[in-house]
């Protein structure tokens, strides 16, 4: 084997490990959203179900959290994007000697731990409120102890740095001659800003806004300190995950993952379409005829996007009509059988134990003659042993004299009644070799 | 803006209205959102935790007791040092370093592969694949790992199925889940800066080195890594700071007996309602992590200006 092949194999294995580390947990989590088992898991797969989506949509905390998350996200976008834009413009004009210090100052918030930012925001505005001599209930007190207001400030303090980085990259390509020309032609500074710089920055503003919104939406470390009385989606999730989990969180994750995949694919498809059109305009690409419409040609992202949309529509359609009740009953039965088996195994073990004990006892005291027939194994196998209390009325006649086997009434029906499943048929007074030994009430014989 | 306009004429260059708006926004950000909050937290950390009535009164004096508590513990305790909290602190810092190194090792080959990949299509697909987990909520990512590492989780089931383990391994208590989760949470902040710098490396340099007989190790040590240094530094700084300051992953994936330093801060604030003590702990965390980052930057000769590129 040549070393080139070896390297290729190693690279392939490495890529596989890397991407399974990165994507594997998300896939597993998505799968748990469709398992009917009450704890999020995949390995004992019970039933395919959509019920957790229903549970999710019913959850009031999550809906409230979503509302406040969006509200805070919008506020943070407005504040952080404008601060980031201003900071990046100032960066281009600040004294060259001062530039690196200034850059350090505006980049530092990214590096400050979110916990610290949250605490400092909380502490500072609490003090500002006190400085104004605000009493409980007054406007300032309410404002400076309002979770939404504080969270927007706390998040903006570092999200503005992210926005600033986006703007700096774009500003490097701006030609200040344009602004100068506008000013020479009689525009005011505000007009020049609005008509020249802002349109030029528009793509950067759009991407910075998306970035800021997402960063705000998923922030936890800062928010958990500043949010006080309110809840954002992230803090609700954190609380749920810490206290007790059910797969409705997985279904939320599945929705978010699907949306992310869609957004990524749309972005990619639009990019490819644009570059294809550019190529066509420059005459590098002939608008050939094909089976696929132009949008999809040479654009795998768009094709995947269309397929995925069909898949999601089909899934939502299925979810409306699909009902896993049948399967759930089966799973329940299977579990009951398993429980029964376990109980029987336990009983057998106990019976053997008892048998030993009884043998020893028999050596000492001869067994009392019993009127009823008693099999060697007594009532071990009496079906009623496994039955619940509620079925006792189904027993037609109490056995007049319960058989007393060597094992006595150890296995009397009610011994195990608590966690045993329903038994459809109650035993009749038995006949045959084992006779009515199996009668459920045979403990009476030992009186 | 390529031309340097003199900053002293800022208002003339931008007009009085726009100039004031720009300066006002930057000033608001740096002063009211960064500087004053940090200073007031620092101030808080030197004060006693007093009932509201005593605040501003004669008892409201500066003290070092909050910091002393971190080092020596309370007066009642028998031990001479606050071993519990100090241990948590050291563990947090060391574990954050380990996570950073782990991420460098894991990301470097991929960043190199993506940065130097010949076909743009494959690299682009990988980048899209990478961005997807990046936008999933931090909590949900930790939750995903919890499903895998839990006692009845996928990993345990798989190990039992393969007869590699006879009974469930408690990955959570062993902190395996926590380290995996921290490495997972910020891995892309390591990858993308590395990828960006390696992408800008001229492939001819590598070809030339190879033609002259440089070994594979040599090429990386002498050409790729020196070129990628700002990216590695930037990624490491972010991963280290974020891991040391992480709260969600330790809360969700941490074992019940082992805490992360941020969890102590959280407890002081939310459970004990002792903001002063919490602020002192937060200051310790902030100062020590920044000091560590600056030390490493000095050692590896990296500038602050490289961060965030």
Describe the structure.
The complex is a heterodimer of chains A (447) and B (309). Helices cover 64% and strands 0% of the residues of chain A. Chain A has helices spanning 3-32, 51-58, 60-93, 96-111, 114-131, 139-144, 147-171, 176-184, 189-218, 223-226, 233-243, 248-281, 300-321, 325-364. In chain A, helix 2 packs across helix 12 (248-281). With 309 residues, chain B is mainly alpha-helical. Chain B has one domain: MetI-like fold (Orthogonal Bundle). Chain B is globular. Chain B starts with 9 loop residues before the first helix and ends in a 9-residue tail after the last helix. The interface between A and B is large, with 98 and 95 residues.
What features would you highlight for this structure?
heterodimer; A: 447 residues; mainly alpha; MetI-like fold; 2 domains; 14 helices; disordered C terminus; B: 309 residues; 0% strand
Distance between the termini of chain B: 18 Å
The number of E-state strands of chain B comes to 0
- What is the string of helix and strand elements of chain B? HHHHHHHHHHHHHH
Could you tell me the CATH topology label of chain B.
MetI-like fold
Structural class of chain B: mainly alpha
Write a brief structural summary.
Chain A contains 14 helices and no strands. By secondary structure, chain A is mainly alpha-helical.
Summarize the helices and strands and which ones pair or pack.
The complex is a heterodimer of chains A (447) and B (309).
Chain A: H1 3-32, H2 51-58, H3 60-93, H4 96-111, H5 114-131, H6 139-144, H7 147-171, H8 176-184, H9 189-218, H10 223-226, H11 233-243, H12 248-281, H13 300-321, H14 325-364
Helix pairs in contact in A: 1-12, 2-12, 3-4, 3-7, 3-9, 3-11, 4-7, 5-7, 7-9, 8-9, 12-13
Chain B: H1 10-14, H2 16-45, H3 65-72, H4 83-116, H5 120-134, H6 138-149, H7 154-161, H8 176-185, H9 187-199, H10 203-211, H11 216-244, H12 248-253, H13 261-271, H14 275-300
